[in-house]
Batch of 3 targets.
Target 1
Amino acid sequence: MPATTLQPDLDRRGLCACVLALAAATACSGGGGGGTPAPAPPATGGSTLVTTTDTKSGLMGQPAGTIRDYTSSSSSCPGTLGAAQGVYLVRDSTGIYALSASCLHQGGRIQPGSSEFNCPCHGSRYDLNGTVTGGPAPVGQVLDHFEVRESTPGGALLIDTSKKVTASTRLS
């Protein structure tokens, strides 16, 4: 039977990033022995509350489509499936919302584009509200959205990743 070579949908840089992330995870876990994997960290590295540098009035003064990055500094293609990648704070025509930065396929960190989010690991695409528009993530599913509120009237915005809200919920 002839050998089959699989051609992944990754460019060289993406493949290297994923291989390095996997190697680092293996090294940190003691070589990938038969133990139980550690649970994935929360979206904000231990806390469920993200204090942003944005205010409601400041972000509402920006054009629709403005995205603020509150993601983790870990690899875009994590060695641990489902590792939380942080959140994005987005301003659209009706208000402000926060959504998960973790791809619904295998947990890679989605990256903002001009009018969509893209996952560099396997090519999933999302509209700015977090709905999957192209796979391998399940088309039509939506990223988790989280509560956004002001710390004090006129103060910094807070994102509470322990409080999921509907994808249509906005702070206005």
Target 2
Amino acid sequence: MSALAAVAAYLLGSISFAILVSRAMRLPDPRSYGSGNPGATNVLRTGKTLAAVLTLAGDAGKGWLAVWLASLFLPASVSLVGLAVFLGHLFPVFHRFVGGKGVATAAGILFGLDWRIGLGTVATWLIILGLFRYSSLASLVSAAFAPFFTALLLGFDAEAACVLVIAALLVWRHQENIARLIAGTETRIGGKKEAS
């Protein structure tokens, strides 16, 4: 059952709301402009706030839904399901295994594990964004704190290990952003070149 749940979660994660919302609202494919990343930040570049909000809600929602369902029916598989839905977002089978960076989906997973972890991580993201106005930096700092929040609230168990792996993958997906931050060429939120 755990293997089936993981496969189902991976398939759910493979649904790209950036692409679905863009098609439904007759917007350009998010992979064809800006950072090329199918995520809410890039969709926002179209100037359609509603499209970005729907993308954010969909990507976060699928992460939360997968973990919530697992907690109800297969509690022992929660960490496996959380990782599977995240991998689906990063490497979607429906889109030639080229997906987003996973920030919204990771947030949904954290809320599914424990609302306090999700809230603490989102608060960290908002604080860093407010101070520095770099979406990528906010995501990276939040990823660093998420495993700490999880271990603090739940103990260092399978869930904390899952969040640690997700955080490492999220940082890996932000390699280009890290290089630009170090070089001082990353544009702040609202700029034309910011690519989180």
Target 3
Amino acid sequence: MRIPPLPDKRIALRHVAYAIATALVIIVIDQGSKRYVVDTLDLRNVGQINGVLPILNFRMAWNTGVNFGLLSAGSDVGRIILITFTSVLATVLAVSSAWCTRPLSAIGLGVAAGGAVGNLIDRFTWGAVADFLNVSGFGIENPWSFNVADVAIFAGLGLLLWPGAKKTEAAKR
């Protein structure tokens, strides 16, 4: 398998800058929200705060695995494997932005990388990822919690897959 050639150097560097800047914004938002909810609101001890919004609750969950507790890593070895995997993944996402042909894709990679690093910081800080957002209401009880980093990972990959602008017939001529 061959690595495709990079686009123009200026474009590649600009896209990497977009990805890194976006990742940094996501990390700040993610870590700020976690510190506020876990420490300032003391969700670690309170456990849950219902009715933040009509369908939004704060419910503390410590995730030792990946999304929704899959591949849970309760041991130090498992945690090191997840930290290594996440570090490599975030690096690959950011570096891959150099090959993007449009800024939105580079930003999407940065959003996803920022989410991965946000959860990585939790693993170093707390030994598990702090999940606290819970969407339940109107008689529907959702057992899962997530965080800003999780949203960023999915949103970033969504931006990456977002179709490019379609050219009009006039522009094609």
